[in-house]
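Subject: Sanity check before I submit

Could someone independently write out the structure tokens for this chain? I want to compare against mine line by line before I put it in a report. The sequence has 996 residues.
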Amino acid sequence: MKIRFDTLDYQTDAVNSAIRVFEGQIIKESNFTITNETPQGSLFASDGIGIGNRVIINEEQMLKNVVKTQILNGIAPSDSLFGNNSAFPQFNIEMETGTGKTFVYLKTILELHKKYEFTKFVIVVPSVAIKEGVLKTFQITKSYFKKQYNGVIYDMFMFDSSKLDRVRSFAASSTIDIMVTTIQSFNKDTNVMNRESDQLCGARPIDLIAETRPIVIIDEPQSVDNTDLAKDALKNLNPSAGFRYSATHRDNTYPKIYQLSAVDAYDNQLVKQIEVAGIEVDEDGNRAHLRLIEVKTGKNGISAKIEVYKKTRKDADKVIMSFKAGDDMFTKTKLQVYDEVGFIQDINATPGFESVTFSGNPEKITLESATLEDEATKRAQISKTIEEHLNKELQFKQAGQRIKVLSLFFLDKVENYRVYDDQGNPKLGRYAKVFEEEYNRLISLSKYRELNDVDVPVSEVHDGYFSADGKGKLKNTKGDTAADESTYEMIMKNKEGLLTFYDEAKHHTAKANKIRFIFSHSALKEGWDNPNVFQIATLIETKDTITKRQKIGRGLRIAVNEDGERVPGFSVNTLTVMANESYKDFAEGLQKEYEEDGVIFGVFDKESFATIIVKHDVITDELKVLGKEKSATLFNYFKDEGFINTAGRATDRLKQAIADKEIEVPEEFREVAPQILEVAQSKVKSLDIKNAEDKVEVKVVKEALADDFLELWNKIKYKTTYKINFDSDKLIRYAVRGNESFDGIDSIQTHKGTYLYKKGTVEMSEAGIKADESTESSVRAVTRGAYKLPDIITFLQNETSLTRKTIVAILQSVNNLNSFKNNPLSYMNQAAKIINAIKNQLIVDGIEYTRTNEEYEQKLFTTETLNAYLGEKGNSVKVDETKRKTVYDYVVTDSTIEKEFARKAEKDDNVKFYIKLPDWFKIRTPLGPYNPDWAILYEKDDEQHLYFIVETKGDVSFEQLRPHERAKILAGEKHFRAVDTEIRFRRASDEAEIRS
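---
Independent answer below. Compare away.
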């Protein structure tokens, strides 16, 4: 199978954010040779204007582009292009793990070539694992990108110190060439890249690379350029510009141009929902539990942290306490059961031999010694992971979804999975034995007999990802050795095989097809993932070195089916973490890790409101924002009025204002009050981690599938087909002249590049030296020759997907081609936006739906498996089953707005029946599938029945939705008109609004 790729809005936004940095620049031919001179010049010369990859630019224009991009993305504007490494401009792009940042920066590379003809790129990564991940993404996306970019020729290679000729061909190539290297390959003088080479006629490899003025992509910069040595190494590449991709940027001195935070990703269901299941044993202090956590050497000598039971007022709680030699265990814990343990005789702090010796029983505990309780806990973890796995397979089987389920176990010692006898023959380690015992017990249960792989022998359903020695024996490693490199290659190679079901009829009988459970060394904790990992368990005996973020990162990506297609939605995408701690501890620990990495949740600052857009011209992208000064005023008002506390966090008063959708603000801010509330709401969100104990299976209320349900269902069950009546002449006319909604291309105005003369005064005071800009004027300056005009026809073809004939007809009708000559790229970008806006409007206007004899399957209501989460952070509303007003005993919702809508519908006696329309109820539109929110049977005046399809949005303002989303909803309305069953369409944020 091949993984298929979709055009996802958030990924397109990330790509465009990088592309906009160079907007308005003029493309020239990209010709360069390998010489001792500088064939492309520097990006910024001393006079502020320079050449890089043959694109004319100045600092001031680039900063304007950056600020505009930041405002569009809701990021506080930067004052400078440069961060801590001021050698070249660099830009932070924040993307949560699992959202496809490697895909995004590969697409960005191709888009930069398409728009500006950049050809040389260097991707710098922190580790071998991530390097292998980049190569794998390059391989599986190549055919997709070739189709997207008209067969463009591009290549990628891994820097290899034994193959320096490849560096020469990189420097000389006229097509797109991408070099991938670890920072360790060139951050020391002794590196081959930094030494003169006979293979290169005495030149240093890094000098050839530097001559090309590459665009540098830095993957996980917090691990790449976190030292001065690394910063100097990057500087030696002589980059034109750099783009820094990470989920957690620690160095925020660089302008951030795009942000997709963890909360954004979860809210928009771009990654899996996380639920935590904890295995906790509590014997109330009836047994002398002892677990060594760590041994430390400090100013006051050697101490040990040991997990024990300690007496409380009511019973005993499990706690971690600090102990020293001589401590009496009974005295410290106040529990008689520890009397037989005695006192601590000795604490050994030698690395690798940490232990605590007692005078009684047990004689000694070590970091690796497992108590009976620990053994029982590990068995329970393995068993529950298998059970969750099989239940997920059963759910997909019953729903008719061909999605292969994978589970991942992390181990810290190979011997717990595989051991060898005296002859070197492999045998099962103790956790592998436990796995096979528990799997055989569970798979024999009658409810699992219908599963696809029920008859595959247990020995073939699991395998290990561990590094091996020269004889093929598995061994413990640290994740960064040569042996690990081959292991990462194996993981990447098996990716598609692991996603494919074992199926003899289709000849899918490879070893990887049978594997559903993966055991991996904890050292292999980054750089790889698999979209169909649904369960993760950690069977670590020593100190757990894998962070919670690294654990969930292996399985956050949205699942794919057997055809390689993404299957979105939390009903499918839930990642269960089998933790060896409580749900509460895991959730708090995960949030702490984010905050340690610089991701602060729910804190307002003086710039929080700076990017609220006051005015936005959609065609020219001209923006007017609230700005930093007014944002600071608003921030102080929020503090003074008690909306936020002294720490900048939301108070109950602000939370209530958000719930009421109304907030009192000073007169000057009243027009933007809705946007202020929107910012406030985004700030009070935190990571929504689900507790597995709160999960319940949703059941069908069979008695509800009667008269009212059937009456409503018979109004909405019909499918349609559509055709588009597209008027090309109207498109050409509107694109040129405009219509009631959009200005046409004739309205485009551009300006020639200007040189600004600025003069200011220098003031000296006790506060320091300050330069104030006092005058500014343009200078008459003549550049050599007119701009070389790019191929506008091909550009607009690529941007709009229209025929060459139509593009030519549009351009022949415009009367402002002088504006194209003044600033070709600005003109082309504005023209493309106008044409696309008009085109999408005409597509929706011209769509014509026809009802067919096909119907949505009613039986899917009873065969689909749904789960609801209860509690304060739950996603469901419990219904009164006696009222028989809806299909299930819980209504599963996607947002707070929907939860409130369901509660009110449940209480409203005029609502006779309502359905939260499931994911499979999709309407085909030319812009992608549309899934409406609700169907409602409403009774008016005790007799007249009204039927509604309701679309609930946080902001009912239709105009504020993305144009793409608006168009799909409009198409959906036309579908229901064609169904012709008296159904009415409503857009609402409150259930009461459907009555109006």
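---
OP: Matches mine. For the report I'm noting this point. The longest strand covers residues 768-779.
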